[in-house]
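Pasting two entries for a bug report.
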Amino acid sequence: MNVLFLCTGNSCRSVLSEATFNHLAPPGLQAISAGSKPTGQLHPRAVALLNRKGISTEEYFSKSWDDLPVAPDIVVTVCSSAAGETCLAYLSPVLRTHWGLEGPSHVVGTEEEIEAVFNHSYGIIRARIEAFLALPLEQLENDKATLKAELDRIGALQA
């Protein structure tokens, strides 16, 4: 099963999600990430945070949704409509869910405040991914409506 984490720039939230998912997922599950307007580089604070968590960032880079190496089975948008971001419409016929998350890369403040926001965002991402991976995916694979409902429920989890 391939899970696509999608946001605009593919430099922070979606990459944090991709790397964390792949770090925690069992064999047979894989995440990829992409953006509609990729920045072309990963946010340095996202890379540093993942490295502190023991998650390799070596194979990750900012990429367009036009350059996906595999077709996704599930698309998870991580844009934040609360911040006025336009959520992306991935048009292929796949299961879609929204896990809105404020973009930590746009936070202004002291070093401590910015780090706190990045850590909080990572905590939410990790809690959601752990909940996703705890689902009985083999059973839900044939029940798309229930799987969608569970993924939507997970999207409301906070750290």
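Entry 2 (this is the one that rendered wrong in the viewer):
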Amino acid sequence: MQRHTNDVKPQDKVFVHVDLAQRGVGGDDSWKSLPHEQYLLTAPKYSYSYTLSLLDSNN
């Protein structure tokens, strides 16, 4: 679902969205072309890791 800024209500929460990779939005035209080869995700499997750390608000 598309959202517009007036559709988003303030919340007392923090959201973290972590993406491994993005493939690109398309080729040289706005219809059936794929992204250029260097922007394709062709590996059979991807993995990654990350660490979230809380910061002391007194620092």
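Dev reply: Rendering is fixed now. As a check, the viewer should reflect this: The chain has a mean pLDDT of 81.
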